[in-house]
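Table 4 source record.
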Amino acid sequence: MRFAITVLLVLLVATVGVADEKTKLAVPPVPVSRALDCTNAIPIDCGDVVTGNTYTNPNVVEYYSCVGWQEAGGEVVYELVLPDPDCYIVTATLSNYTGDPDVFILGSCDENDCLAYGNLTATTNCIEAGTYYVVVDAYYYNATADYTLTVTCDVCQCPVEPCCPSIYVCYVEDFNISGCNFYTEDCGGIGSCFWEWGQPVFDPGSSYGPIPDVACDGVAVTNLLATDLDAYYGNCGERAIIGPYDITESCWCMELCHYYDTESRFDGGNVKVSSDGGATWSLVYPARGYDVTAYSAPPCVSLEPIFSGHAVATAGAFVRDCFDLSDYVGQSIMVAFDFGADGSVFYPGWYIKWVKIGSDEFSPVESTTWGNIKAMYR
């Protein structure tokens, strides 16, 4: 018999407008030494519909990397093998449930390798063939959760290698060094996201963790371009702009090093370019795709693909995203970072470390750029 005395200070966080989202008691994650046990994982295939319950299973894992609340009930682990040569978008859905079950899709037998989660439905991005794990876990301690689990798999185009695998740099905007002459403009928002440049405050108050202090290539985080440096973003919509840049046959691939932590789908940002001096803007897509499509509520990015969520895609770290700008060869462009939030729940926001533009072909680099390039690796 296990005895536990637990003192919890809980904050009730209500999410408005999501039909399949239940209110959760936000509990800051604490280290748990135990690891997910997949020894008796139940095999499951695409298209299967199975029933189960959590109360006859042990409570081994209480925290997952993609959520901030505690899963104090028992968990049921399923092993899903996706066959070659296709790639898949996997959806796990709970129905006919009692109690309060949640569902997680993991990239391996590791609760810290969380690809997707949901109160009733979890959906991955396009993932490659391999072995994955679907976990049904109960929210409450000793919860009695019966459920029906359905797993579907839609074939998708396999992820491609980043468009800048070995980049020769013709432009570097390193926000470690300066604000890179960025400026802002309204893009239809209420209030302001306060895009600003400088030293961030690593706020330990976020239940999803502080802003990482190391960026891409192990470079220490000093200065950043951010939606707000010392507070969570508010009800807002604003555009940060840099440029111009001449796009050529040897200077067409843009690499972005960034980190984001937002309310999924209601808040987030995307990248746009303009080839007419900012009169019009067109959305550009990273090689891996954006995380989700925004709901209609957030200004500036309403119903558009966005970077969004609690650092799930970035695994809690700064991440590189690459953009193919070859359609703009022969033109001069501006680059914009659009961010919008609906104002219901606030999180740290969007933080940009650097922007590089180049290609995998050699191009002479202007002498004024060499100092920026070398400084990035100090």
